[in-house]
Write a structure and sequence with these properties.
Layout (H helix, E strand, L loop, with lengths): L6 E2 L25 E3 L14 E7 L4 E4 L4 E3 L2 E5 L3 E6 L2 E3 L7 E3 L6 E3 L10 E9 L2 E4 L3 E6 L10 E6 L4 E3 L11 E5 L7 E2 L3 E3 L5 E3 L8 E10 L4 E4 L3 E6 L8 E7 L4 E7 L4 E4 L1 E5 L3 E6 L9 E4 L4 E4 L8 E9 L2 E19 L4 E3 L5 E4 L1 E5 L3 E6 L2 E2 L9 E4 L2 E4 L8 E9 L2 E11 L2 E5 L5 E6 L4 E3 L3 E4 L5 E3 L12 E3 L5 E3 L8 E7 L4 E10 L3 E4 L3 E5 L4 E4 L1 E3 L8 E6 L2 E2 L9 E4 L2 E4 L8 E8 L4 E11 L6 E6 L5 E7 L10 E8 L8 E7 L4 E5 L5 E10 L2 E2 L9 E2 L13 E2 L6 E5 L14 E8 L8 E5 L4 E4 L6 E10 L2 E2 L6 E4 L10 E9 L2 E7 L12 E11 L10 H8 L2 E5 ...
Parallel strand pairs: 2-40, 4-13, 14-22, 24-31, 32-40, 42-49, 51-59
Antiparallel strand pairs: 1-17, 3-6, 5-10, 7-8, 7-11, 9-10, 11-12, 11-13, 15-19, 16-20, 18-19, 20-21, 20-22, 23-26, 25-29, 27-30, 28-29, 30-31, 31-34, 33-38, 35-36, 35-39, 37-38, 39-40, 41-44, 43-47, 45-48, 46-47, 48-49, 50-53, 52-57, 54-55, 54-58, 56-57, 58-59, 60-61, 61-64, 62-63, 62-65, 65-66, ...
Amino acid sequence: MPSTHRQRFGRRGRCRPLPPRLALLLLTVALGPGQAAIRIPAGYQVGEFKQPPEITVQPVSVTAFTADDISLTCEASGNPAPSFRWVKDGEEFDPTSDPQLSTSADSGSFSASGNDPIGEYQGKYSCYAYNGLGTAVSNEVQIIIENTPKYVKEKKVTRKVEEGESVVLKCNPPSSTVAPFIHWMDRNLRHFEQSERVTQGRDGNLYFANVFASDGRDDYTCHAQYISARTILPKEPISLTVTTSNSVLRNRRPQMMHPSGAHSSYLALRGSTLELECIPEGLPTPTIQWVRRDGVLSESRTSRQNFERVLRFTNISETDSGEYQCMASNSQGVVVHTYTVTVEAAPYWTKSPESQLYAPGETVRLDCQADGIPTPTITWSLNGSPISSVDPDPRRRAEGGTMVMEDVQPGDTAVYQCLASNKHGTALFNTYVYIIELPPQMLTEDAKVYTVVEGQRALLSCETFGSPKPKITWEGESSDTLLSDPRVSQLANGTLQIASIAQEDAGLYTCSVPGANLSITAELDVLNKTAIISPPEYLRVQRGKSGFFTCQAVVDPKLYPPVIQWRMNRKKIFESPYNDKYTLDGSTLAVSDVQSEDEGMYTCEVITRLDMAHASGYITIIDKPDPPTLLQLSAPKDRSLMLSWSPEDDHNSPILEFVVEYEEQQFGKGEWIEVARVTGEVNHVTAPLRPFGTYSFRVTAINELGKSKPSSPSALHSTPPAAPDMNPEDVRSESTEPGTLVIMWEEMDQQNFNGPGFQYKVMWRQSIGQGPQWHHNYTSSPPFIVMEAGTFIPFEIKVQAVNDLGEGPEPEPEIGYSGEDTPLEAPVGVGVEVINSTAIKVKWAPVSKDTVRGHLLGYKVHLKRLGPGNRRGRRKRGRNEREGERSDSVTVETGANEEKKVLGGLQPYSRYAVSVTVFNSKGEGPPSEPISFDTPEGVPSHPTSLHLESPSETELTLHWTPPSQPNGVLTGYLLQYQQITDSEDSPMQVETIDDSSASQFTVKQLDPQSRYRFYLRGRTSAGDGEAIIKEGATMLDGAPPSNISMSVGETSVNLSWVSGDRHRNVAFHIHYLSKNGGGQWKVSEKLNSTQSFYQLQGLQPGSQYRLQFIFSNNTFWETDIQTQGEGMLELKEGFATQGWFIGLISAIMVLLLVLLILCIIKRTKGGKYSVKDKEEGQVDSEARPMKDEAFGEYRSLESDNEEKGTTSQPSLCEDSKLGSQGSLARPPRQPNYSQLHHWNPGLRERDRPTA
């Protein structure tokens, strides 16, 4: 590809001047002679084995300057060690006889020092290595000796050009076989920048396609660098003067600066490098394009360099022969230069003979085939001498590239040279023919096991060696001829090849040499082929989501474990700790956050040590479609138009349908309204429109993933106005007040107005026959109210849409009523039928519809509970209960056609009153006359509560409260109980309690080990009521606690225990004794067994105690404990009673008393204080409480002294005296609490002591 960055002049390109006439580029290739050595296998057991010579290091051509060292290397191997000789320019040359040359004793290499004249050694050389078995010949090389390039004094060159013209600055470096590297630099040795406008050619010249004024300078210097001579020669600086003009520069069409003319020819050798150069001039600077006239320009073997000015062929081949063109163009025109490229080839081998061992009497055939352009000729040599100069032998004949020797003998052992030559060079190949007889030997180990997989090719080796070459045979376990199977073949080296291996091919195979008693066996083990049974699938993944591939395979157990390798477009996939794009989990590959670059083929490779199976899946990215484009409006009509659009990318998910929407700009609410849906194959639709509207359209595409974004809105389209084509709907009466008719309807959408001046025409008349004439009026919105319309009078009403262009269709009338009023009369014939204690049926006669004065909505049955039933023996109620009963009422509504109603949920044994009213939308009419009735008795509700107590282990006393709703006269209770067992079939015991006022009952003779379930019911004359259920068991006699655990602290011990289930409370005490100092037993407070926890406090740290738990004057548990912490130091017995100790204490007390008296005297005298200090002292005394547990803010004594310089030094007893108000003495100071590190900043004013 062409380079786009700017380079510097003098890049490390070579200066290659062309010949003045036809430019023929002859690029020679140094061809080394081919040679094939005879190799004796390492495993072949043989004594000393002679070998003909083999050249191992070939000489290389040398180009040197007169002061350089030169050397030619030629090394060879053979047995016996070969000798060497040289041929220079066709004549024998002995390096050992030249004192200026240094030679090597074990090779043919020689060298000469640059200190001696070396010009005489220029020439062409060939190296010959020989021993008793033959002579090997090296390739022909050349030594070229040149004089070291030297600086030549030149005249300074000055070039003067006008701005915009072209110019060439020539370098003309000293000639050399090896072209120098050219560098154009300024006087500061900085390279000039290169561009399309300014280019350095392959000849070293500097070409300006057009010059700028800024190009003018006097230091354009060409430096020629000769790498081999280690020399850089600077040329004379060139001065370039650019004259400018005030006129506008005139553009010029391109012209070819180099090469000149319209055509040039080049000859290149196959495999070499060829560069075609094209440097044009013109203004503006021309651009370059390379084309091949007679074919396609190879992109793999060509590249463009030097800003497109050079087309470079790498490893050129015969197919590159042809015509090429460089087209230079600018805004003024084009210039074309044509290049004819001819590719020829020096000789190269297509088939070469193989060096071999032959047995006496065999026929030897050597084949040499070479190619080249022109076609090379082939000649033969024997030990370096042309075959024509060797004594003729009837057993030997050479025809072209083939030599045949019959009945060879050991004396025919030699090195034969095959030489191919044409005008471009030669190719030499050494072939060794060794006539010897060697016994055959097996070189492959016996009993070798070959493991292959089904379907593969098996190669069972049977390597032998000998002269003549041993012939071998293969046999299998079956009697069938092994080579009769078309899958089986024997290769030239003796290897048995079996193609498409199957399980039945497993077994033993034998290789033998007939007549030599030599054989080996080979075992073939055939394994199952690795197969992928669940290959990756072709996934369609939405952009941003994850794709998951699975790859499950069946692998032969002998090939475990397989390696699973995933590839994406043939590139390996690896997990990375830095991102989670790929997650590999066994046979699963997860590709997260799929984007465009993740689309492609994913291949799973299951690799074992013998085979590999692979399968591929694909990720296709799918997404919501792109919005349609190019919305076009066509075929407009009054109420329709044609809309068409162009679908866009569906992102690999076919478009299912298009949604067409419009927005009405004039009366719309900014909403897009769907007008049509069409399938994904359709790209147009006829859209129905309303009159008097301004519309814009948009289209949305939908595929399986959802909707695209809406398209851009179309152009606006307006429709002409028209008369309304519809009327408002839901015309009705919503009259609520008597004497008015309120006509209501649903307002029409403005988009249906169809034109300007829209109104509603409201029409009404009474519905009596056809009634009088229609009344009408106009309004812009509902409702419309007609006054003095009577009470609940039927009217025919209708509403019609009108605008400036006319009226809408004739509407159908609707029936509406004027306002309602409350009903006038109550229902009559009201009766009550008592069904049972909780239900009644109420009946009444229908009212006259004329008295309803509105739509009859139904009837309301009002039921009110007046109190308990009016019967003997009813229980006396409290005032609160009676008030609650008086407020117990309910209202039930019925339909308009119902004249009876069953009411349930009444309370038994109660007195009720019932009445009935009729109602319409305006309200209820007057109630009917109330009817009173009583409900019969019912069964009571369950007792309100039930509690169990156990006076003994065999008795339970039940305590209860009466039912909250006796529903009659309570006559007693029914008690049932039974033992709770797993089978739930224990007999039920029954106790009848006839006393209705009873509230407890004791059940005796119970099993202490059992639990019981009790059922208690109240009773009335109607039967037994609901039961309250309770479970319980008797309490067992108490016992002291067990399972006592302890947690010992410094001054206390925590005790916990578990009380027995159902045990009565037991009281006990804890007795404890300190074992450190004797002392007496101490007793805790009374404890009970149900509290489960107790903390024994008041113990001494680091002390031992004896604990006893006492119940009924008996110890039921005891233990020893050790409290934590350090114990108190014990004084020796009698210490405090010693006389000397008492005297010491008395002296100390007297001394303290004296000091206290001195302090009081000193404070009484005091110092003089300023009034300010005194006031501050009083404030301090008030602000600082004396209690240690609630002291306030403080200041140190030192800080006080610093603040009040007039205060006297405090006395030792300063803190013990309070100053009075009448004294000038400083009030007593609080202690220096700062040294105690106590502070209470949160002390509030009300917490401080008053004065």
